[in-house]
Amino acid sequence: MTQTFTFIAEEHHGRMDKWLADQSDDWTRTRTQSLIQDSHVLVNGETVTKANYKIKTGDTIEVIVPDVEELEITAEKMNLDVVYEDEDVIVVNKPRGMVVHPAPGHPSGTLVNGLMAHCTDLSGINGVARPGIVHRIDKDTSGLLMVAKHDRAHESLVEQLKNKTTTRQYEVIVYGTIPHEKGTVDAPIGRDPKDRQKMTVTDENARDAVTHFQVIERLNGFTHVLCELETGRTHQIRVHMKYIGYPIVADPKYGPKKKNDFSIEGQVLHARTLGFVHPVSGENLLFEAPLPQDFQDVLAEIRRQNPLT
């Protein structure tokens, strides 16, 4: 059942996420940040969505811990494309069409199901449904994902993501010709009030979001682009490219409403480069995954149908 915890802050002016983590042995800082981001923390009756909210003396803080739907996670043998693995971390090249972790509607066939068959030592910070998962990429986005084998590695990788010290580069094809060579989109992202299944650029209950981009190739009505994430919001690249007028080709959620003219299911978006500091050895690691065949096929199709004149 859903539980509600109420606290009164006494002579404390620290960050909300850190303060809450000190209130219960069951809450890690990662867990409290998740509760805050999901609008499950109220201060004096008002929802707080920023982990760095400064608590004031006398604040009444309510924490609503929702039910976790019990999911029976089954290990499934899969031919995972493991790019790197040691006793602390795994880097996997996820194919397009694979969901990262089980959820209602996707209880099996996910990356987590495959990881559980591949190895038994995965971090438990994100709960039974998401063992080892530090970050995720969308079902129809292909590419590199880092996975933690134990909680120490998990905390380190999350901290690197939060401190913006990881390298995450994506290749994408967008509609339209971007006239400048590179640029930055700095626009906050939050839930779309008109469609709760979408994210949008908004000032309402939003979080800072920054995407850097650079043109790889112009393709007569399309542009092949390299995007680099500074932050990692849900659907960030898809939302930001739409926001500046260059939606991703074949994106069913944020692209044009016209029919997809290409032989690909889902947005043409690939997590190409992933770099981070090894959580135990301190070594700088950098990995690249080549463009999948379906991405290459779209590039070839555009070049054939829309030659530059």
UniProtKB/TrEMBL annotation:
<dbReference type="GO" id="GO:0000455">
    <property type="term" value="P:enzyme-directed rRNA pseudouridine synthesis"/>
</dbReference>
<dbReference type="InterPro" id="IPR006145">
    <property type="entry name" value="PsdUridine_synth_RsuA/RluA"/>
</dbReference>
<dbReference type="Pfam" id="PF01479">
    <property type="entry name" value="S4"/>
</dbReference>
<dbReference type="Pfam" id="PF00849">
    <property type="entry name" value="PseudoU_synth_2"/>
</dbReference>
<dbReference type="GO" id="GO:0003723">
    <property type="term" value="F:RNA binding"/>
</dbReference>
<protein>
    <recommendedName>
        <fullName>Pseudouridine synthase</fullName>
        <ecNumber>5.4.99.-</ecNumber>
    </recommendedName>
</protein>
<dbReference type="InterPro" id="IPR036986">
    <property type="entry name" value="S4_RNA-bd_sf"/>
</dbReference>
<feature type="active site">
    <location>
        <position position="138"/>
    </location>
</feature>
<dbReference type="InterPro" id="IPR050188">
    <property type="entry name" value="RluA_PseudoU_synthase"/>
</dbReference>
<dbReference type="GO" id="GO:0120159">
    <property type="term" value="F:rRNA pseudouridine synthase activity"/>
</dbReference>
<keyword id="KW-0413">Isomerase</keyword>
<dbReference type="InterPro" id="IPR020103">
    <property type="entry name" value="PsdUridine_synth_cat_dom_sf"/>
</dbReference>
<keyword id="KW-0456">Lyase</keyword>
<comment type="similarity">
    <text>Belongs to the pseudouridine synthase RluA family.</text>
</comment>
<dbReference type="GO" id="GO:0016829">
    <property type="term" value="F:lyase activity"/>
</dbReference>
<dbReference type="InterPro" id="IPR006224">
    <property type="entry name" value="PsdUridine_synth_RluA-like_CS"/>
</dbReference>
<comment type="function">
    <text>Responsible for synthesis of pseudouridine from uracil.</text>
</comment>
<feature type="domain" description="RNA-binding S4">
    <location>
        <begin position="14"/>
        <end position="79"/>
    </location>
</feature>
<dbReference type="InterPro" id="IPR002942">
    <property type="entry name" value="S4_RNA-bd"/>
</dbReference>
<keyword id="KW-0694">RNA-binding</keyword>
<dbReference type="InterPro" id="IPR006225">
    <property type="entry name" value="PsdUridine_synth_RluC/D"/>
</dbReference>
